[in-house]
Amino acid sequence: MRRPPELPVGLPPLARRQQRVVTRHQLVALGLNHFEIRAQLQARRWTAWGAHVVLLHNGDPTPRQRMWAAVLDAGEPAALASHTALELWGFRSFAAESSAVHLVVPRGAKVHRWPGLVVHESRRLQPDEHVLRQGLPCTPAARSTLDAAAWQPWPRFACALLAAVVQQRVCTVDDVDEALRRIGRIRHKAHLRDALRDIAGGAEAVSELDLGRLCRRFGLVPPARQVRRRGADGSLRYLDAEWEVSGRRVVLEVDGAHHRDVGHWQADMRRDRELVVTGARVLRATASEVRFEPEVVARDLLRAGVPRSCQKPVDPGVNSLLTSRQEGGRRGQAG
């Protein structure tokens, strides 16, 4: 049996540095010729990947090896972007899109596309701003956040992603705000700007972003968010939204699905009692109500005394919408 050719001494350090992913050009530079490379591939000791990359093993590539394969196969100035770059920055994603490798390249660049690789072409690619994370070129955290938000069709998801990135301390509100001012025209920019304002004010969950949108739509004074209050037992609690109205507090708690659990439900009732006995007026709404029936929630907030802001409501039909709801409720009671 023919013995496999000896490998160059410089290959193991390169393989360790690049997770056992190299280019054919790198192999040639180390002293291997094209016939020796082909022999390793034909013997199935190595695996060809893309147009220019070789995996120095014959198994399936790991997620990190797929990242290396993407940037090495495309060459400079390509960089990992969007969900993939955010992963390198430490973000724990909740999106199905994060399973793919996202690569940004200049407009018109020729890139070999393979299953699981998503190539984004950009006219505004700025290679001088790319950074290395674990040896891999990627876009900065704030730019990666905006790209991940803009490169999908749903504004609500884009805002949720933005909130999660800030909540996980991948980057700050100021970082994203600066990137948003510099990035030019992108999809969902108005929604992202509004969400960023809400997040800066303390919003952490998507339902709280929906509440901020509700206040703007119906012209309500925005609340204080995630207000810290001490309970009777001395424990620290956070209120979703609070308004000061003529010396009295109006509190709105926005409940997600987990609040239907018996343990959460009982804790919520206990907390509501503590707030009421200290003089607060407590309203509760489900996250679905805030999102799908905002006029109902807005009407009740107005009736509880939450004032209008000096700005005009975004929705010109707000007053008639609230009035029709109130009149419908009276007719129902009269019937």
UniProtKB/TrEMBL annotation:
InterPro entries: DUF559 (IPR007569). Residues 314-335 are annotated as: Disordered. Residues 248-303 form the DUF559 domain. This is DUF559 domain-containing protein.
